[in-house]
Amino acid sequence: MAELNTHAVRPTHLPALDGVRGLAALLVLWCHFPYIQGSIVTRTLSEFASYAQVGYFGVDLFFVLSGFLITRILLAERRAGKVRIGRFFLRRTLRIFPIYYLTVAFCAIWFGAACLDLIPATFYVTNIAALLRDFRGTGPLSHTWSLAVEEQFYLIWPFLLGGLALARIRSTLVWILPVVAIVTFILIEYGFGRPAIAQMPVRMLSLSLGAGLAVREGEIRNWRGSWLVVGFFVAALALFINQRLAKRELLTPAQLRTIQYFGFAAASTCFLAIVIGVEGRLADALRTVFSGRWIRGVGAISYGIYLYHIVIMHVLGLEYANWIGTGITTTRWALALALVFLVPTVSYWCIEKPILGLRHRFDRPRTPRAPARASQPA
User: Fold this and answer.
1) pLDDT band at 225, cuts 50/70/90?
2) pLDDT tens-digit map of 7-16
3) Which percentage of the chain shows pLDDT scores above 70?
4) Count of beta carbons in the 10 Å neighbourhood of residue 204
5) Residue ranges making up the domain that contains 102
6) Helix (H), strand (E) at residue 356
7) How far apart are CA 65 and CA 21, in angstroms?
């Protein structure tokens, strides 16, 4: 087996990935956002989002991107000496916990016992709770299942990456983790007859694909971009056909979710690989778009958009069951739209950014003190 080229990974900032994060947040928001009563445009957009499963693509893109970025950071530490597990968890804690538990506390006060996911969300096991109820949660914290998946992944991946021999990292990513993910998916979906998409071992497919891109970052520039574009559109076509067959009731729910599982993982991975560094006009155009100031700005507040938007909908009484088929007034629609961007923006500047500033204190390399010089005679 070829040796892993750790020097190919460059821990430099890739501005376009901030934009990709923004895109993922917008896709999820689009999928969950209500339409205006009597508005053909907003209703058509809402129905298209539901039919095309843009929210699924957004979440899967988050997973692939997260696997890529986290692995990139850990590989950089590995090259520098060793993976510092404590510092890694401290950085994750400062990034994730403050507004997450602020949101959980708000839901406990505002919704009380009506918030069924309160306890599972507190312990980052909303995804496991979703498995027990067939993934039908519609509460203000039900969407935290994806954050639970990532948090559970963080508890495992740093130890694996820090403990594995460099030559074994690639084989683990290429074979072991994807096989574990696929086998787990089959067992849950076809063995137990339950929806499996919210479980960490299952979504490890997308996370490991993103991690694999980090390991091969130096090689991606040499990949044929045309094949990645073809791969993306083949996956998109398969997903479209999947939806058509499902509408005609020619597929079982498990078969529908199976094609979604593989299709969105493939589409997300191809898309991210193109943006990361493939040569070509299309890739250059995508990097230019996603490096734009406005989409990167959305990327900066993407965590808040994802975390707050469902809570805001519930506070405004805009749960899915309350507007599907009827829509909402223009005033309520405008208010909801303003809040889902205003609240994350205020949160970012007043809470997240100051706390993130503390994180950089732990990223500074330790330099030995220079010995004090003896004073020289005048």
Assistant:
1) confident
2) 433 468 899 9
3) 91
4) 25
5) 1-6+84-215
6) helix 353-359
7) 8
pLDDT at residue 52 in the model? 94
CA-to-CA dists, residue 152 to 163, 215, 231, 246, angstroms: 18, 21, 29, 32
Q: How many Cα atoms within 13 Å fall on the side-chain side of residue 120?
A: 24
What is the tally of structural domains in the chain? 2
Domain check: are 2 and 96 in the same one?
yes
Q: Dihedral of CA 217/222/225/226: which sign?
A: negative
Residue 313 lies in a domain: yes
CA separation for the pair 27, 53 (Å, rounded): 9
Which residue type occupies 166? L
* 328 SS3 class: strand
Contact call for residues 153 and 205 (beta carbons, < 8 A)? no
What DSSP state is assigned to residue 301?
T
Statement to judge: residues 211 and 99 lie in one domain:
yes
Question: pLDDT tens for residues 76-97?
Answer: 888 888 888 999 999 999 999 9
What tokens appear for 63 in the block? 């997973």
Q: Which of 186-190, 226-230, 372-376 has the least mean pLDDT?
A: 372-376
Write out the E strands in the chain: none
Beta bridge partners of 36: 328
CA distance 14 to 338: 29
Place of tokens 């390991």: 215
Residue 373 pLDDT level (bands cut at 50, 70, 90): very low
Please identify, among 215, 234, 263, the residue that sits at the C-terminal boundary of a domain.
215
CB distance 3 to 166 below 8 Å:
yes
DSSP 25-73: HHHHHHHH---BTT-HHHHHHHHHHHHHTHHHHHHHHHHHHHHHHHHHH
The owner of tokens 């991606």 is 220
Asked whether residue 154 is domain-assigned, the answer is: yes
Q: How far apart are CA 41 and CA 45, in angstroms?
A: 6
- Give helix 330-347 / helix 302-315 axis angle, nearest 10°: 140
